[in-house]
Amino acid sequence: MEHEKPVWSPETIREALKLYAVTDNAWLGERTLAECVEAALAGGATFVQLRDKHASADELRAEAAELLALCRAAGVPFVVNDDVECALAVGADGVHVGQDDMACERARALLGPDAIVGVSTQTVEQARAAEAAGADYLGVGGVAGTATKPEAGVLSPDEFRAIAAAVDIPIVAIGGVNAETMPLLAELDVDGAAVVSAIFAADDIEAATRELSRIIDETL
Ligand SMILES: Cc1ncc(COP(=O)(O)OP(=O)(O)O)c(N)n1
Ligand SMILES: Cc1nc(C(=O)O)sc1CCOP(=O)(O)O
Ligand SMILES: [Mg+2]
């Protein structure tokens, strides 16, 4: 069944960031990407980002179209990592861009005022610039080191809080967030947790997501 494209208000975006699932095909095994995302949604993921650094343009579009349909059915926002063209082509809710990706202003101009544009920031300066450029939310990290992206840095609690204090848009913490580290988010002034391996590397993705959902509800 076709679902109409929703318009996500700032308040619904803030709420939806609570348990943000970022996909990773490295952990698929015998499973399809759609099965994995369906399980994450069933377990309570509140936001989904397709992140596939190895797909061709056509493969990424096919994945995005499939995940978009699942997210629409679940009433959950769906964004594409890095690739604005793909997001536009499939009618995704938006994109997530980093400091080395398309500039936030350009992504906003291409996707329009109703799209969700998330921006990765590691400093107060970057956070203020992203907000001024029209970002809807910030991805800030890491909370702890992670094998998913070994080159990613780790921020101190004070650095998280300084970024949160510098902007009015919501913040999702990313990098090394799992059932053990998630309670640390209580001290970081963030609105949610973005999680890759603690969801998608699990044998039982639905159960792992449900447990993370329980913990984040207790934490924030
Ligand atoms: C929610 C969220 N936050 C941060 C990132 C990292 O984005 P980026 O710095 O562009 O790195 P890559 O993901 O492209 O490797 C993210 N993807 N999602
Ligand atoms: C995609 C990404 N960005 C990061 C950042 O710090 O900007 S950390 C990261 C990977 C997070 O994976 P996991 O949940 O498995 O630790
Ligand atoms: Mg990127």
From TrEMBL:
Entry superkingdom: Bacteria
EC number annotated for this UniProt entry: 2.5.1.3
Keyword Ribonucleoprotein: no
InterPro entries linked to this entry: Aldolase_TIM, ThiamineP_synth_sf, ThiamineP_synth_TenI, TMP_synthase
EC class of the enzyme, as a word: transferase
Keywords: Magnesium, Metal-binding, Thiamine biosynthesis, Transferase
All copies of domain Thiamine phosphate synthase/TenI, residue ranges: 19-199
Any one GO molecular function term: thiamine-phosphate diphosphorylase activity
Residues engaged in binding Mg(2+): 82, 101
Positions bound to 2-[(2R,5Z)-2-carboxy-4-methylthiazol-5(2H)-ylidene]ethyl phosphate: 146-148, 176, 196-197
Amino acids binding 4-amino-2-methyl-5-(diphosphooxymethyl)pyrimidine: 49-53, 81, 120, 149
Cofactor: Mg(2+)
Role noted for this protein: Condenses 4-methyl-5-(beta-hydroxyethyl)thiazole monophosphate (THZ-P) and 2-methyl-4-amino-5-hydroxymethyl pyrimidine pyrophosphate (HMP-PP) to form thiamine monophosphate (TMP).
UniProt family annotation: Belongs to the thiamine-phosphate synthase family.
HAMAP family associated with the record: TMP_synthase
Name this polypeptide is given: Thiamine-phosphate synthase
